Amino acid sequence: MNRSTLIAAVIIIAAASGAWFMTRPAAPPATTPHDEAHERPHAEIAPARAAAAGIEMATAGPATIHQSTALLGRLSLDPAHTAQVRARFPGVVKEIRKSQGDTVAAGDILAMVESNDSLQTYAVRAPLAGTLLSRTVSPGEVTDTAPLFEIGNLRHLRADLHVFPNDLPKIAAGQPVRLLVQGEPEAVIASITTLVPVVESATQAVIARADVDNSAGRLRPGAMVRGEVETTTREAAVAVSAEALQQLDGRTVVFVRAGDALEAHDVVVGASDHQSVEILSGLTPGASYAARGSFVVKAEIEKGSAGHGH
Questions:
Q1: Which domain does 217 fall in, by range?
Q2: What DSSP line would sit under 20-79, residue for residue?
Q3: Is the pTM of this model over 0.90?
Q4: Residue 304 above 50 pLDDT?
């Protein structure tokens, strides 16, 4: 190789090396733990301010998740506390003393009837205490064997829940059931007393019955009800309060304490019940998180994002 050829090769190699050096990616800037922490959406809410705002903190850790089977049905009258009242003898109704919706005591007079045979007037009385649910006669009408009144003690109701074939092996008499009644904010706790031994032809479901204490008088027969029966349990290595979860920009997050800030940690959730949610990833045991009032943190983050045009 002559001298001129060697010089040309050196120039080409140098030029190529310079081009690679100029175009290779720059090394990322060094970050501190403080910088990494604040890459997550966060709100500056110191512990004292958090407490004043109703934000309650808890520690992420193990929990038992109680999983339930849902059963749909209705509330109904309990036949053991319901009576249909008939006239003892055929006759003419001379007087009605109680109307639908009235509260009656056992022995109260509901109507007076004049017997066709003796022409004597006798009283039709309530056989039990409760509420007059219906009345089918008026003064002047003739009685026969048909019921004149229906009385029910509304303190004692029954939930009739539909159990479909796939769920039937998991349901048994004696199991506790959590009842969510349409229009009622609080659940009612009862127990399954029996499984009806026949299948409903229309739905192919078996009826599970539960006695319902309605001492407060808030529940009404005929209302739709959802029963939740605990059928399995799962031990979660890391779990948080069900109230802790929030949606932020389409992601499920938990707000974790980092100094005077609460940071949004993306999480993947697993099994859940009404109190706890299993965390499969995104949170470590021992993390201090906003267990209640997390919506306040979300609002602060969204307000801050809007203020900065994010």
A1: 68-78+155-233
A2: HHHHSPPPPPP--HHHHHTTS-EEE--HHHHHHTT-EEEE-EEEEEEEEEEEEEEEEE-G
A3: no
A4: yes
